[in-house]
Amino acid sequence: MADFVTVHRALLAHLGVTRLLAAVGGSLGGMQVLEWALTYPDDLASAVVIAASSRLNAQNIAFSAVARRAIMDDPDFRDGQYARERANPDVGLRTARMMAHITYLSEEALSEKFGRTPHPGSAKPGFGIDFAVESYLDHQGQVFLERFDALSYLYLSRVMDYFDPFADPAALARLAGKDLRFLVMSFDSDWRFSTDHSRRIVRRLERAGQRVSFREIPSRMGHDSFLLTIPRYHDTIRAFLDRALEEVRA
């Protein structure tokens, strides 16, 4: 995670930006924001951590392990040398994406959108695509192949597995005396990074005497809510950033 922050800081230095009003991120992006705030608190006036975690639980690690296994067991993975050998582990990467996508949506969202609706192209029951939800997942997996690399998927998932910034005894000590405000947000239907993950971050920051605001936003859409236009979600961030700007200008 620290490598991501290093790259972003290098970009800011190149652009001549010395301090940010806010670093804002959801999911993996929220982890990067937390890493940035804990490691380089002078870079930021505020940090917005959305639908993220400071330490994945066993269930999250397990999901990622199965996804990685699907990729690495694909015969075209070629021990990671697939590009050199003009191959690509499409079957494994598509399967990994399909499974992961299930975890991004709530049961309610899947039920509302698909229920048990049959797939229009299904002539009779079998082991193909018989239900609309199967067609949706197949599509999500297929389009993922057009924009993502298998090795990137492996590394990004492993980065999240090992992320545990509060394990560093000096992490919170670096925040002492810093003028930094936090907004931590979760969604009540997110079972991939549930509200408990966000509350853990809040507790750690509060114990260190940091200024922390926390909001759990109602949503039917699960983890993917952080990507959607949900008025209460956007209004909360807007109000927080407006206040942050006022403090900087004061």
Describe what you observe in this structure:
The model has no long low-confidence stretch (mean pLDDT 95). α8 links the parallel β3 (181-187) and β4 (211-217). The chain has helices at 2-15, 28-39, 58-72, 90-104, 107-113, 132-145, 150-162, 195-207, 231-249; strands spanning 23-26, 46-50, 181-187, 211-217. The chain is of the alpha/beta class and 250 residues long. The chain has two domains: 2-55 and 164-249, Alpha/Beta hydrolase fold, catalytic domain (Rossmann fold, 3-Layer(aba) Sandwich); 58-160, Rna Polymerase Sigma Factor, Chain: A (Orthogonal Bundle), CATH 1.10.1740. The chain has nine helices and four strands; from the N terminus they run αβαβαααααβαβα.
Task: Output the keywords.
single chain; 250 residues; alpha/beta; Rossmann fold; Rna Polymerase Sigma Factor, Chain: A; 2 domains; 4-stranded parallel beta sheet; 9 helices; 4 strands; globular
What topology does this entry show?
Blueprint: H1 2-15, E1 23-26, H2 28-39, E2 46-50, H3 58-72, H4 90-104, H5 107-113, H6 132-145, H7 150-162, E3 181-187, H8 195-207, E4 211-217, H9 231-249
Parallel strand pairs: 1-2, 2-3, 3-4
